[in-house]
Each structure stands twice: as C-alpha cells, then as structure tokens.
Amino acid sequence: MGGSRAQVNKPHKTRFASKASRHAHKIDKVRTGKPEGSHRAAVKGARAARVQRSKAIRDQKRAALLKEKRSSVGSCSAPRIIVLFGLSSSANVRPLAKELLTIASGEEGKQTSSTVASPTYKLRTTVLQAPYGDLTACMELAKVADLLAFVVSANSLYNCDSSSPIDDFGSQCLSVFRAMGLPSTAVFIRDLPSDNKSRQELKKAAISFVSPELPEDCKFYAVDTKDDLHKFMWLFKEQQLSSPHWRNQRPYVMSEEACIKPDNSTGLCTLLVSGYLRAHNLSVNQLVHVTGLGDFQLGQIDVLKDPFPINERKYSNAMDSEDSGIQIVGTFVPDPSIQEPLQFENIPNPLEGEQTWPTEAEMEEACLNNKQRKLVKRKIPQGTSEYQAAWIVDDTDDEDSDSENDNQDDAGMIIDEQQHSDHGGCSSDMDAVSHFTEKFDEETIGGTEMADDENLTKEQIEAEIKKIKEANAEDEEFPDEVETPLDVPAKRRFAKYRGLKSFRTSSWDPKESLPSEYARIFAFDNFTRTQKHVLAKITEQDEGSLKDCAQRGSFVRLHVKNIPTDVASKLVHPSRRLPVVVSGLLQHESKISVLHFSIKKHDSYEAPIKSKESFIFNVGFRQFTARPLFSSDNINCNKHKMERYLHHGRFSVASVYAPICFPPLPLIVLKSRDGEQPVIAAVGSLKSVDPDRIILKKIVLTGYPQRVSKLKAIVRYMFHNPDDVKWFKPVELWTKHGRRGRIKETVGTHGAMKCIFNSSIQQHDTVCMSLYKRAYPKWPEQLYQM
Description:
It is built from 17 helices and 33 strands. By secondary structure, the protein is an alpha+beta fold.
C-alpha cells in the first residue's frame, strides 16, 4: 500500500473563464501591436473624461446661479416688485403698503413714490396694490410681480357670512394667476389678536384655508407689527425668487414715470417711459410692445442716473443735468439699416395670379391636343360638308350618357350638365318607379305603405320631415346634422363640401383653395429652427457683444415713437393708476400668422362660447381681440374636426389670426360686456404657429328608409332632386345602427334613391352622409382696443 500524497488542485476553473482569456496564450502579442494594459487604460481614461465633463457642467451651473443671484440682489439689480392682493373685500392692502414702504425706506413720513431704496437691507423694493374687483388690472400687475403677496384678514374667519377668507373674486383671480404662471408667492395674515394662544390658532386656521390654493413653497407671515415686517424684509432679501419662464424670455420695463411728447400736425406722439430694464438687455433696433396699444419702433434709448441708489455716497457729487433734473448717462440711437421693420401683415400683389404668356412646351402640348381632337370620329348626317360639321354639337344617346354618368360617378362629385331628350323621359321614370315599387311589394319586410311624394306640397313635405325628426329625437346624438333645403339644389348649396373615404387617411392638400386672408399672413419653413435662432440672438445680446443694447438692471427712458396721441393720452392719464409696461419683441413677433392655442372653458363661465365670436386674448404681455375657431386635437391625424362650441370639461384647440408668438406662453380669454368689467371665459396656452393646420367642418345629411328589403332600401328626404342624387352618388353612406352602404340609383323625381348596405337595415334606422369642407378663423376687425 503506497504512502499518502497531498491533493493538488487546479489553479483556476476554465469553465468560469471567458473565451478570450482561455485563448489568450494562442495570440501573438507582438503582432497585435497593443500593450498588455491598453484596455484597462482606455476604460480608466473614459471614466476620467466623464468625471471631467460632469465637473465642467457643475461649474457652469454654479457660475450661472451666482450670476443670477448677483443680478437679482445688489446695487446693479432692478428693484424687487411686491404686489399686494387682497383675497377678500375685508382685506385692506392700503395701510399695509404704506407700512412696508416706511419699513423699507427707514424714514417716517409720507412716501411719494412706490419704489424705495433701503441702506439697512441693501435692497430696493417696489410695492404695488392690486385694485380689488378689477380683474384686468390684477392680471397686469401679476405679470410683472416678483413676489405676489396675498393678504388675508383674520376678521373674515369671525364673520358668519363668509365661511372662508377667500371670496368669489379672490378665487377667480387665483385661478387666473395659476393659469398665467405664478411667481414667488407669500401670504400676509392681518388683524390677528394680541393673545398668543388665539393668535396661533387663527394663524393655523388661515393657513389651512389658503394653503390648498397656493404652491407648496408659499411662505406665510403675520404682519401686524413692525417687528413682523422687519422679519419679513430680512427673509425677503435672502429669498431666491422664481418667475414664469415666458417672462424670462423677453426684456421688459415697468414704468416709474410715463409722459407723452406730441408731434406737430401729425396726430402722433412719442411715448416716454422711464423705468428699470429687467430680464434681458434691450436693443434700440428691436421692436417693442406697449400693453394695450400694440407694436412700435423705438426712436431712442436714454440710460439715466439711478434715482434710487442704495449707496448715496456713490452719487454724492452732482453733475450737469437736463432741465427736468434727470442726468443722462448714455444714449442709443437706432440704425435704419439694421432696425427691424414694423411690418404687421404681408401686402399681396393682385397681379401674381395673372396668366402669363404660354411657353413653347405649352404651345406644343396644345397643338398635340388639337390634333387628337380632330382624329375623334363623329356621327355626321349624309351630305354634310366639313364646314357644316364643325358647327354641329356632339349629341349622345342614352347609352353613352349612362356610361358617362358611371365614369363621372367613379371620378367623384362632378356636376352632370348633360341635357336629356324630352321624349319618353317622364314615362321612363314612372315605369322605373312602378317596376321598383312592385318588386319591393313582394320583398318588403314590414307593412309600411309608401307615401305619394308626387302629390305632396312643399309645406306637407316640411311638416313630414319635422315629424320624423321629432320621432327620432332620442337618437339625435350627432350635432352636425343639417337639413337639405327644398328650394336650392343640394349640389349648389353644398358645393364647397366633399366626401372622404376615411377622415384619418384620406389626403387633403393644405394649399388648396386658400382664402384671401392667407395672402396677408406669414408662415415658417421650420418653426422650431426659427425659434432656436431667435432665442440664440437674445443670448447674444445678453453677452454684451452688441453695442446698441441697454444693460439689464439699468434705469432707462424709452422713446416709443409714432403712437396716436388720443390713445397714448388715455394710457398716461392720472386717473389710470396702473404702470405702463413696455416689453421687447423677439424677431418676427410683430407679423400676423395663424396661432393655435390649447384652450379649456373656465368653470365659472356658464354662457355658451361659440366659434368665431369676439374675445379678448391675453397672451403673455400682449392683449388683443380675436375671433377663434375651435377644433379637436387629433394626435394620429393631420385633419381636425371643427367644433361649433367650446364644451365644458375638455381641452380644444382655438385657431386665430394674431401676431406671431414663440411658446411657451399662457393664454387668458376674457369676454367683455357692455358697461361691465370683462369676465374670464377660458384659459390655455400657446400650442403652435402653423397656417397649414387643416380644420374641417363636418355636416351630416340624413334620410329615412321608406321601404326596406334585406340589404336594400328606398331612402327619402336626404335629397329633393334626382340631379342631387347623381351628384352625391360617389359618397359613402352610413347609418346610426352601424351599417355602411352606397347609392345605387335614383327613384322618381323627388329625390328618393335606392341604396344598398353591407348588412340588413331596419325600418327605424337613419341613413346619413358625411360631407366636409375646410374652415378658417375670422379676421379681427380691430386687433387692439384701448
């Protein structure tokens, strides 16, 4: 028996190794030319590159955040705007505004301006009051607010009349502010009791009432004493404010002072608006929009000395100033060669559609067609010369007309203008009716007798149609049904309509038969690319590469020229307490096009909203009049069905002729009433700018089976003329019970027709025909109303 030996195991298991490692010893390392650790080094280098790239992105974000913070807080930043809004009539914001201005300025006494500079807080603040009950004014102030402060009175919790500190007007304004996009928000709670326990209980009750209506980051402050206001100001100074994205895309100026400088004998004037420039730099060659007035050009931009400096020592040395006492630091004058033109709409050339002289290819084609026409053989009476034969009109017999009718039916709805001979026409029609009726008497399902249409008058036919519609009122689920007129042929009344085999897949040329208004609007080859280019231009202005731009945060005076004097005088009237807002327009934003908005009816508006009715559209800083056309939004189809009314509870698309805007932008639709404040009708947002969006108006012609026999039926009251039946013969029929069919032939002389369906049809069913035509919005009579 041999001695014991130690067990020897394999250094590794090959079945756990990869295929490449098992065959590594077979590869000549010299021929590969790669070092042994090249793969590991490549992986390590890629990871280092990713780390470096992440660090670079992180540093860019940190630098952008610091730049934004320095621009929003400091001596070079514009004053922060606080808008006080009372959520109920019991909330008095006027004494609160005075107290805030006194605390911010650090001086006791009456404040002459709504903007103050505080050396204590190193902050400049503008305090504005939203007038209670004026929805339009509250909207305009909320558009420029950096902090929207809602004021709640604790006394409203004591009153038995109100179960909530928010009344109807406050709730309506809150819904409008949410639709526009809320800036940073805060809630000021007033009139709290001095008892600490009751004070905390009422504060919690007010917070529980208001917090569901506001964002989660909303701050709540008790502001009854000066200590409370001091605490708020310190927190407000360090607060990182947020603003709607649409407002950050455009430069704007809220007026500290506004006046007009009339021009002699022209009826026009120059509007002088002084204020702080916010959001972006503004070029003097750029167009501007004055809210409520329209789009205009700038005549000049003056950069003035800051009237509210935080550090008084910096401006202690007085310098030469103008007669008005305002020192001009710099002036920008527009360059006519690069200034953006003030072009609202395209001026169409009426001679563009004129016929030009035919080309040689067209002349050759015409000669070839004439030769082919001469080769066509015609039946000519014997003894007729060639000259006489040229004057003979081609007549066709009944067989030729039938074949031509079939060919026309295959081609679509084409007017049949062929003249039939009078002899035997009436007798042949009567024979066809009698033969078809006798055949149906043998096969009819149900014992309904056919009414004698030949002996009915117009009033009797209308009465019978009304009677049938009333009997089928329970099945009237299709709002597009229209009645065929008795005195006008249907092919003339519905000449602009056409049938579609499939609403989703059938083709429709977006450039076909456009209205005259389309010659006045503008369109983009690629809207997304244009928007990207326009926003890049704004970024270029902010980087300071252009020399004709006023810097953000500076105090400027804008010279807005060529404004009607009577309109501008209303804007700067002392009774109008709202500030004037002038916003810079992006490139192309003054031109008219077709804008599409995603829109929803507001819950508080109960009146019906009809298509093409006049409304006031608030889109960003803009406010204009429009007559929208409503339609559905089909995701998987390039055609959209027109809606006659805007319905509750769902979104639709509103299409209008309006100045071009670049999304995202909010939409607030107001309805003006005679002698009353406008009320909110709908809310939404800008969807796209596309004149080629196809909106189809649908109508449904209905008929009723008179005799049915399995798959066949005689349908009446859809048409009242045999010619109309022939005209609409190519269009497919459908019934409310899900049958599909087609028109086979006419029956009689009063528009009855024989139809064939894909399944058995019932006597109480309704036969329908869908027709479509393209619809367009209405051109506004007056775009801006002041």
